[in-house]
Amino acid sequence: MGGERCPRQPENSDVDFTRAGLDFEQLTKDVLIGSIEQEPTANNILIYNFAITAPAINNHKFAILTLQYSITIYPLTLTDHTTHVQRQCLK
Question: CA 61, CA 38: separation in Å to the nearest integer?
Fold first, then answer.
C-alpha cells in the first residue's frame, strides 16, 4: 500500500453519493442495483462500502470498493475489491 496524493473533487462537482445508487439503477434499467452503505464503527473511523446487487441471480451482491477515513479526513484508504488493490491517499 503506497501513499500518494489524491486529486481533490472540484468544488462545483455534481457528484451526489445519496443519489448515485438511484442513477445506477436507471442506467441499467434495474438489472443491477447500486448501493452505498456506511459500516458502523466504534471509533472515529468512517467506512463506506460501494456494491452492486443483481436481483436476477438470487440478489448476488458484488463489492466494488471500500472508502475508509478518519474524522480528520487524511489519510484516506481506498480498497478496490475488483482488483484487490488498496491505496492510501495523503494530504
Answer: 16
Q: How far is CA 83 from CA 21, 24, 56, 69, in A?
A: 21, 21, 24, 20
Looking at every residue in the chain, the average pLDDT score rounds to: 76
Q: What mean pLDDT is predicted for residues 35-53?
A: 87
Domain ranges of the chain: 16-90
Instruction: Work out the burial of residue 9: count CB atoms within 10 Å of its CB; fewer than 13 is exposed, 13-18 middle, 19 or more buried.
Output: exposed
On whether the pTM is more than 0.90, the answer is no
Mind giving me the DSSP string for 29-64?
TTSSEEEEEEEP-SSSEEEEEEEEEEGGGTTEEEEE
